[in-house]
Amino acid sequence: MEEREGEVRWDGLCSRDAAARDAALDTIGQAVLRRAESIASGAAADGLPVLAARDGLGEALARLLMLSKRCPFPDVREKSEAILGGVQELGIRIPRPLGHGPSRFIPEKETIQVGKEDATMHTLFAESFATLGRLDNVTLVMVFHPQYLESFLKTQHYLLQMDGPLPLHYRHYIGIMAAARHQCSYLVNLHVNDFLHVGGDPKWLNGLENAPQKLQNLGELNKMLAHRPWLITKEHIEQLLKTEENSWSLAELIHAVVLLTHYHSLASFTFGCGISPEIDCEGGHTFRPPSVSNYCICDITNGYHGVDEIHASPAGSIPVSSTESVCEVEALMEKMKQLQECRDEEEASQEEMATRFEREKRESMFVCSSEDEESAATRDVSRHFEDTSYGYKDFSRHGMHVPTFRVQDYSWEDHGYSLVNRLYPDVGQLLDEKFHIAYNLTYNTMAMHKDVDTSMLRRAIWNYIHCMFGIRYDDYDYGEINQLLDRSFKVYIKTVVCTPEKTTKRMYDSFWRQFEHSEKVHVNLLLVEARMQAELLYALRAITRYMT
């Protein structure tokens, strides 16, 4: 059933031309039904149960299931469903989706349903499907914010598929290396498929030691960028650029750094929003029939429960009165008003501002979850990177001191942007647009309140993340952070940014309990972009120092 054998070609489904899609579906349907008939007749002759997984048929059926649920083109959805029905009539068990919707944290009924999207969203979905050959769950959650999603997809497409210093299979392998640092099997699975599709060597997937030395040499930078970017020096850059036959060019290194930071941050979004496995990937479907109660014991052991149980209330397992939640919103708005009044009345001295930053940086070290809940189940992906024990470490633990990174000395706007654009044309511009959209995005709402200026809150979130990375803005009063971000929110932010694989639904539910899910996804966009920019600042500063 593999494309390599020429039996099934899925590429035609990405066409924007309905006739081309129709022809592709006819060919796919014939190939699938031919294989299904052969398996069904063989099994009947042998008196054996029919196993759809034989000869790759299972993979094709899972792909058709995904298309029937997730393709933005109605003709493809309907015909995929019809092909599955034809296979089922032959007595072969077809797969069904596991889980409920694109996110484990957001009830499916509150997400955008494929086929019910408006014209703007449909254009985005069609663009995404035509580019990637799928409409993935990340897109279905990000589409709460179409303006951002458009910028994100444009940037990701450029990094992965347009002309650039690195060959296509290297790009996907670097994506795998980056996602694996956070054990993000969701992203690893997607890019393993893409890596093989563009002709990548399957042997490389057995472990980093099987990849070319040039990629192995990137392992150290990947590790530091993901967990302790403040340790990156110009010597690390020099090592990569000066290694005889396995050396990187400056342009290749910039491309690799942008890919690594993109996928570290996307792993944060994946865990922060509880993104479910894709329907056609491992954990996204099952061939077992549903039980009377709508799910079987194997689903429960895999962490999939009944829809009513998972989404019983907006606050999940944390019962809270609506009055209490409304008070939470009102209190936050009152604090914002008071801080604005204080700003207008008096300004703290530079010394006091510096002291407040150091205090916030120090306090951020002690923000950690008291929970020992299991994080989302994941298959082992550690073979894609080395030194599995290397993780995030706070600045001053174990006597380690890291100097503060002053944005006034090296900033994205004045330094990083031009360096990226010079070595990898247009990418600086794309990243800059994406940073600005995420930072400035607002609908002037807070929970049930309208016409609210949220700029103070958005800046506090962005600057708190940069503060955790030691990055300081001289003109910002870090005293505002403690006023605006409560402990449960800080725990969520720090977990999603620093150790995303430990994020739980309880953490997601416990902050901003009266806010909309779209607002929590908005928070995640800020986390993604602030984290990416922080990592980039450290890497680009080291590259600049190497060059001068």
Automatic annotation (TrEMBL):
Q: Which InterPro entries match?
A: AhpD-like, Sestrin
Q: Which domain of life is it from?
A: Eukaryota
Picking any one GO molecular function of the record gives: oxidoreductase activity, acting on peroxide as acceptor
* Main location (coarse class): cytoplasm
Q: Name one GO biological process term.
A: negative regulation of TORC1 signaling
- Any one GO CC term of the record: cytoplasm
Could you tell me the keywords of this UniProt record? Answer: Cytoplasm, Oxidoreductase
Record's subcellular location = Cytoplasm
Q: Is the Cytoplasm keyword given for this protein?
A: yes
Q: Which reaction does it catalyse?
A: a hydroperoxide + L-cysteinyl-[protein] = S-hydroxy-L-cysteinyl-[protein] + an alcohol
Family named by the database record: Belongs to the sestrin family.
PANTHER family according to UniProt: P53 REGULATED PA26 NUCLEAR PROTEIN SESTRIN, SESTRIN-1
What name appears for this protein in its UniProt entry?
SESN1 protein
Originating organism = Sylvietta virens (Green crombec)
User: According to the entry, what is the taxonomic lineage of the organism?
Assistant: Eukaryota, Metazoa, Chordata, Craniata, Vertebrata
Gene assigned in the entry: Sesn1
